[in-house]
Amino acid sequence: MTLMPSSLMRAAALALILSGASHAARAADEGITVYNAQHESLTKAWADGFTKETGIKVTIRKGGDTELANQIVQEGAASPADVFITENSPAMVLVEKAGLFETLPKDVLAQVPANFQPASGRWVGVAARSTVFVYDTRKLRESDLPKSLLDLADAKWKGHWAASPSGADFQAIVGALLELKGEKITAEWLKAMKANSTAYRGNSVAMKAVNAGEVDGAVIYHYYYFGDQAKTGENSSNVALHYFRNGDPGAFLSTSGAGVLASSKHKEQAEAFVKWMAGKRGQAVLRDGDSFEYAIATGAESNPKLEPIAHLQAPKVEPSKLDSKKVSELMTAAGLL
């Protein structure tokens, strides 16, 4: 057997090292691809801050929660996505159940309280939004307001409230109701909702309708009000927010999630981005920016204009247990989808 000269062995080893370094450099140059179902401006602020600090490029592809979750499932191991970010957790659960997320490192998960991430460790919360009842202050007094989300099923609310049932936001709220109260109560509430409520396409449209006097109140997420107030206030000048509190299903706090795809070819960079979003600097974007979503990392501060999370008295809902498939079935059966 002819042995390779030591000089040639060293040269071959060096070539392998250089090849690996070159591959790592190419990966860094390519950056990461993010499938983004969060608000475009928020994710861009996260991406810009991360790129400025690390030099890693972030390419963002925009879509809706359910749309992108289903796309990832269809793409499977061939998905070009490295990171998936959502507005609500049911879309994260869909991808998680398909086995397409990588388990995140412990130092990433450790930044966020357990109630804002699944027990599996496959993804992590990066922001949150609170359910509220926005109401017309010209028509309703505080004493008139529903004590519970379930109160809206009462016949006295017929024709007096609205929602955007086709959106992922409202379906996440129904998912929390299902988890907290069970299928029977949820189905009955949805049937009453069909009879009592007016459907609008979009939370901002529903709030605008309340402001215009078309309907007395609407179930939406909190940040639509604060976002409008920070601009002209023209779509929220006649409305106020009512928080249900006391662990009520109407006090549900929805988790926006981020996860790394198991098929990612740039896992280190993808994990670094998720860690950055859930970390001090990423959460500061929520505090200082105009998204008006809640910062949720341990010790992180939210925008000072928001009602503190501790005051919301939100119910405890394991984000990975929100069943989007069952919600869709129940809402379809009630004639809401």
Automatic annotation (TrEMBL):
Upper lineage: Bacteria, Pseudomonadati, Pseudomonadota, Alphaproteobacteria, Hyphomicrobiales
Top-rank lineage group of the source organism: Bacteria
GO cellular component terms given for this protein: outer membrane-bounded periplasmic space
A single GO molecular function term of this UniProt record: metal ion binding
Signal peptide extent: 1-27
An individual GO BP term: iron ion transport
Family: Belongs to the bacterial solute-binding protein 1 family.
PANTHER family cross-referenced by the UniProt entry: IRON-UTILIZATION PERIPLASMIC PROTEIN, THIAMINE-BINDING PERIPLASMIC PROTEIN-RELATED
Protein name per UniProt: Iron(III) transport system substrate-binding protein
Pfam annotation, one family: SBP_bac_1
Binding, Fe cation: H39, E87, Y223, Y224
Assigned keywords, A-Z: Ion transport, Iron, Iron transport, Metal-binding, Periplasm, Signal, Transport
